[in-house]
Design a protein that fits this description.
CATH architecture of the largest domain: Alpha-Beta Barrel
Largest sheet: 8 strands, parallel, barrel
Number of helices: 11
Number of domains: 2
Radius of gyration: 20 Å
CATH superfamily of the largest domain: Phosphoenolpyruvate-binding domains
CATH class of the largest domain: Alpha Beta
Order of helices and strands: HEHEHHEHEHEHHEHEEHH
Number of strands: 8
CATH topology of the largest domain: TIM Barrel
Strand content: 5-15%
Strand order of the largest sheet: 1-2-3-4-5-6-7-8
């Protein structure tokens, strides 16, 4: 039975039920209270407090600079707004790579200080020990394979990943490794749709695609991209549902004009004795 239209809380188990039933999973980013409230009210299944906040909120060129403290702050803001969606919090660069003890400490801080529901980290075999260590504390983990933006300086480009046989084989192997380790879902970013379909069919946990074609179990986009707030980023996979940058700009210009002309505030917008 579909969970849509129902108020019951989305859990990792809900997502598994949705995959089994063939129901598509919806996921969007949010970083603040006001927009997270709107996203949750609209019925999105998963809200990702993404390290993309480094780009859209802080203006950095990559996701690398954002810190654990920053991510916890954004997650706290989102958590206060959400009633239904499952909240996934990105673990930022440097908070889990290479040291599973540090990874566990970082994940515990996220869960305790933000009240988020789960964490997400990038990579396969390279980070599987960190995944296992986090899971020992009972913290749900979402994986992330394909284009991993935190590794941009290694790749040197945001182009499609896993087009070559060797990298594709490793991605499939890593997906199974993450499933076996206990991840509840895996994001597949910017990989060929045929590969994403193969991965989705070969593992029992849900796959969430971004630039990975229609055959994943769900889809995710950055909210600011979907709404047309950010306009300097136009990958092939992005569908803009609004053009808010223009609407917001026009509204602000009109406000400035109204103030300068004396039209605002009017008599009706002023108080009398």
């Amino acid at each position: 039975m579909s969970i849509h239209g129902q108020a019951r809380k989305v859990t990792t188990n809900t997502l598994q039920e949705m995959k089994s039933a063939g129901e598509k999973i919806t996921m969007l980013t949010a970083y603040d209270f006001s927009l997270a409230k709107l996203v949750d009210k609209a019925g999105v299944d998963i809200i990702l407090v993404g390290d993309s906040a480094s780009n859209v909120m802080a203006g950095h060129a990559t996701t690398v600079p954002i810190t654990l403290d920053h991510m916890i702050y954004h997650a706290q803001c989102v958590e206060r707004a959400v009633d239904r969606a499952l909240i996934v919090v990105d673990m930022p660069f440097g908070s889990y790579q290479g040291n599973s003890t540090v990874a566990l400490e970082s994940a515990v801080r996220i869960m305790k200080e933000s009240n988020g529901h789960s964490v997400k980290l990038e990579g396969g075999s390279e980070v599987v020990e960190s995944v296992k260590r986090i899971l020992t504390a009972g913290i749900p983990v979402m994986g992330h394979l394909g284009l991993t933006p935190q590794s941009i300086y290694k790749f040197g480009t945001y182009t499609v990943r896993a087009k070559e046989d060797e990298e594709a084989a490793k991605l499939i192997s890593d997906a199974k490794l993450l499933e076996d380790a206990g991840c509840f879902a895996i994001v597949l970013e910017k990989i060929p749709r045929e590969l994403a379909k193969k991965v989705s069919e070969s593992i029992s946990i849900p796959t969430i695609g971004i630039g990975a074609g229609p055959d994943c179990d769900g889809q995710v986009l950055v909210l600011h991209d979907l709404l047309g707030i950010t306009m300097d980023f136009s990958p092939r996979f992005l569908r803009r549902y609004l053009n808010l940058s223009t609407d917001i700009n026009n509204a602000i210009r009109q406000y400035c004009d109204d103030v300068r002309s004396g039209d605002f505030p009017s008599e009706d917008e002023s108080y009398s004795e």
